[in-house]
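Sequence in, structure out.
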Amino acid sequence: MGYRVAVVGATGNVGREMLNILEELEFPVDKIHAIASRKSIGVEVGWKDGVVKCEDVEQFDFSTVDVVLMSVSGSFSKEWAPKIGAAGPIVIDNSSAWRMDPDVPLIVPEVNPDDVSYAHRKNIIANPNCSTAQLVVALKPLHDAAKIKRVVVATYQSVSGAGKEGMDELWDQTKGIFVLGPSEPQKFPKQIAFNVIPYIGTFNDDGYTDEEAKMWNETHKMIDPAIKLTVTCVRVPVMVGHSEAVNIEFHSPLDEDEARDILRESPGLMVIDKRDSTGYITPKEAQGEFPVFVSRIRNDPTVEHGLSLWVVADNLRKGAALNAVQIAELLHERGLIGRKVLA
């Protein structure tokens, strides 16, 4: 048995990755549709051993599909996700539009799979922010073991989190510095090549950015609203892969050896933690991989029950496309996808 699946935003970085991961995970697809804006009609995107041509979102009949994976802007999703959900299919949305809606589950399958039970309210499921997704996969098993009191996070987020334009700008600036001369920033507010920018999103009145607020709001919704979390989000000159320095204070004792054992046994995680010059994971090594990697696990002696971790993942995969497909797998396993057809 297979499903009729549409990928909306199929020409973008995450949309293309969604198509790749549907194939890699052998999700039961009977018919695939690549959906994009009118200007992309006929554009070919890869699917299995061939290609599919993009169809116009304005003209597509969404009642003919069972599952829709969306990677579009928040404003586009606000307009289209309810229309698509009302037509019948379940929408798995990668934008920020629906994450904090109380009638829309925000899901990371390793963290809060049971929340899919209320997806029928709007026929929409939200994917978390890419930096939140990898963080909560690491936090949840530790919270279950010792209850987290406070978390301090510094992110090191790759330019692919800003889309193709962000990747192009890093590439062009890097070439320019060595060959063509400096170029003015377009996508980012300051030069990103050979630099770091401690600002992602837009500033809120409290001095934090909306990117930072997403991380604590989404962590509260998926794990526990009592967790105190503060974060500084930083853009770094890395093409793919987000990294996070995470400091955790617990209510109960949990030492580094216990934490290491817990994380090794937890779903979606891989612990690479040797105390030598290469015994940790970098974003380059995480690129193209499925797991969230945890390294540099160590006690923090400055608080009563403290640990520090280094958390890395491919933001286009676990931070976006992979998590969306894993949600589709969860729906499949629980029999929550509406109309099935014979392959």
